[in-house]
């Protein structure tokens, strides 16, 4: 994991006593460092209430133990325990992951708790003058010995065998019993491809738990236990798509479509195996493949640059892609009855209720994308999303003389928070050309190509789309979909056409108390194989009216109750 700049405390510490006049005038004091000295034998419990401390100097005392309560100082970056009489350390010290410098020199330590391996941000570890075992000392004295020792301890730290608590199923509404509807489940999951699962990025995770051979079992267990009718995956490596994902899921009744990122065309055959991309799987007894499409955002940017330098220099240089499959809902499913009234969790089946099979086939467009990752490129993410929806509109228009009859399910790792321009654009049908996420860069000349009215349409200063989309999850149901030490937030989404569908239920979040109790500072983790949590939504598809007279995806079609 990249190290943030750390400046150790100045050893020439100066102390200033506030004068009576300053105190009387209401001057506030702030101190983040504390030094305790004087041959102290025990520490007051009030010390652990000073949770704001970033540096604690308690060296050169007569301390024989450090209580576990020291972990109540979570912001400590510097802790000096040198020259005491410590014979052991509390395992809770391993929870103090903000530590950059831990000095334990000249004590009586013979062993170290393996929990110290969790201190993944530690840059300096002082162990000199302790009667430690030769194995520990030899490793510590090697070049980059601190990091090697911590990695060894983390990799050998016992992991409690308990399994993850079951994520709750959130039932939102009962299915419509008055009209023929179809109910199916959709999964969206960024599986974290092997190439990105490095100790540099995820230093808090044991190396064996980052290994693909270990993680892939948990990933497939997550996918198969959800048993979704439609599965959208991001960060799938090319080789693993064919060797594992497609092979395993075909045995379970799925077919799939995959495309790697655009760079796959530019690298050697060996390197191509490790280029990641997006995949969509669907159950063949529920859906039949009609068309499959790949959208390469760099190619769309090039074709629509209109001479825009930022389009060429910022958007075209990113090789993100999206895929889409046009599926036909199998007709015979419309005639199957259904007795349940409450959506069941997660092993859900796609069934249609009531009525006779429709005379015309029912299509559904399933799209999956992975947008650029860098927070500094909010403009690129927004433009990529606009390009993707513009291409989806073209696919729908070409596929049907009545494109409003084609509902859309859009799954994506948008790398964008719920308050971003990307989510505003998808949810509200458009954003202003002056939106802050464009960073005041000159995109306006080419954005009209992606707007609902097209290049020659009237512009009101905004970029719009004609899909009426709604997110399956709202802000309260899933506090985070990406969970790392540095970032915890919602960046993965399932959107659907609200004029055609409604959401009956969702898979809820992992219990936050379990994460806290097990000191999970970030994922991946031995029990969590990716840095993302999967999304699972149960959607209800309504039959379209016989003769709709609406624009694409029913822009003016009344929503079903």
List keywords for this structure.
23 strands, 561 residues, six-stranded mixed beta sheet, disordered C terminus, alpha/beta
Distance between the termini: 49 Å
- Report the count of strand segments: 23
Structure annotation, total helices:
13
Poorly predicted tracts of residues: 335-359, 548-561
What is the overall pLDDT average?
89
Walkthrough of the structure:
This protein has 561 residues and is an alpha/beta fold. Helices cover 20% and strands 22% of the residues. The strands form five sheets. Strands 6, 7, 8, 9, 10, 13, 22 and 23 form an eight-stranded mixed β-sheet that branches. The protein has a six-stranded mixed β-sheet with strand order 11-12-14-15-21-18. Strand 19 and strand 20 form a beta hairpin. Helix 10 runs parallel beside helix 11 (421-428). The radius of gyration is 28 Å and the shape is elongated.
Short description:
With 561 residues, this protein is an alpha/beta fold. Helix content is 20%, strand content 22%. It starts with 19 loop residues before the first helix and ends in a 19-residue tail after the last strand.
